[in-house]
Specification:
six-stranded mixed sheet; alpha/beta; globular; binds NADPH dihydro-nicotinamide-adenine-dinucleotide phosphate
């Protein structure tokens, strides 16, 4: 063997259950290869009762961090050494980063959404309708508020989750942004009419996700107007019924693949310090759809 060879790789990955169909590894490893980074991203199934041991294992093996997906986004917090600002506000972590040997929980879901939104519209001072009040909606609503959104209308099927999110926005999040935010809960009627003054419409529910691609959002598509930006979190398939209807009415649209790639890109930046090429990551995911 020649002196100076080094077969060791820096380790990151994703912990979840189920996790086998999570495509992050494909996208992140494409970036590692493209930038010649000596890193590996592993897809690891971790049961809820094994989460504490898995985090200890990651510490022992010197992981630079890891993503957390269902069902660990909240449960992981008690095993970490600290939280970033938005993760603390949301009470959920999807990206753990080792800094000075401390494991810090971040939330990059909402940040990924913001970075796919910003090239199209700055959310500061805007009126925004968000469908959903689950994990994705919570992350998106908190980041939009931190970015200066003025009005957030949360439209959700279940009342309790919707009201809880609005309470979070109007208390801790409003405090963090100096109180300029107004969030309201709207029960989801049979057909929701988007108010004419709305600037941005976001589907943050799971409606439209494969294999239920024909499932429809209960909204009156004719209330979408061409000066609105319409975004969908669904990454698979990225061209949802909502986006097709919005596109047909002249709205600018943003798909969920952009959010997925951008949250992955932000994670890689946290772990490696390198800003990866988003096109390489997006192409790797698009390649999966061809199989
Ligand atoms: P949750 O289970 O936490 O929340 C699901 C949300 O969808 C809830 O608000 C739920 O309403 C609503 N919902 C589900 N089915 C219906 C229905 N038939 N009618 C009305 N409302 C419905 O899931 P997440 O928030 O974690 O994920 C939501 C979606 O976001 C998923 O499809 C996921 O793929 C996507 N996502 C995309 C990301 C990306 O990077 N592009 C990142 C993270 C998530 P209720 O409260 O009433 O049950």
């Amino acid at each position: 063997m020649t002196d100076g060879m080094n077969f060791q790789r820096n380790l990151v990955g994703v912990f979840g259950q189920p996790v086998a169909e999570n495509p992050s590894e494909i996208m992140v490893e494409a970036a590692f290869r493209h930038h010649a980074l000596p890193w590996r991203y592993l897809t690891i199934e971790v049961a809820p009762e094994g989460l504490g041991d898995a985090v200890q294992g990651a510490r022992a093996m010197g992981f630079a961090g890891f993503n957390c997906t269902t069902p660990h986004k909240v449960a992981v917090i008690e095993h970490l050494d600290g939280l970033g600002e938005s993760a603390a506000l949301m009470g959920a972590v999807n990206c753990v980063v080792r800094r000075n040997n401390r494991l810090i929980g971040e939330n990059t879901d909402g940040k990924g959404f913001l970075s796919s939104l910003r090239p199209v519209i700055d959310p500061a001072g805007r009126d925004i309708v968000i469908f959903g009040a689950g994990g994705a909606a919570r992350a998106i609503a908190v980041e939009l508020a931190l970015a200066g959104a003025r009005g957030l209308a949360i439209v959700n099927r279940g009342r309790e989750r919707g009201v809880q999110l609005v309470r979070l926005l109007n208390t801790s999040v409003a405090d963090a942004v100096g109180g300029l935010l107004q969030a309201d809960f709207h029960p989801w009627p049979e057909t929701y009419a988007v108010p004419a003054a709305t600037d941005i419409v976001v589907n943050a529910t799971s409606i439209g996700l494969f294999p239920n691609v024909e499932e429809e959002l209960a909204i009156d598509y004719d209330t979408l107007s061409r000066d609105m930006v319409v975004a969908d979190v669904i990454p698979n398939p990225p061209q949802t019924r909502l986006l097709r209807e919005a596109d047909g009415r002249g709205c600018r649209t943003i798909d969920g693949l952009g959010m997925l790639v951008d949250q992955g890109r932000i994670g890689i930046e946290h772990w490696t310090g390198v800003s990866p090429d988003a096109d390489v990551m997006r192409s790797a995911l698009a390649g999966l759809a061809d199989h």
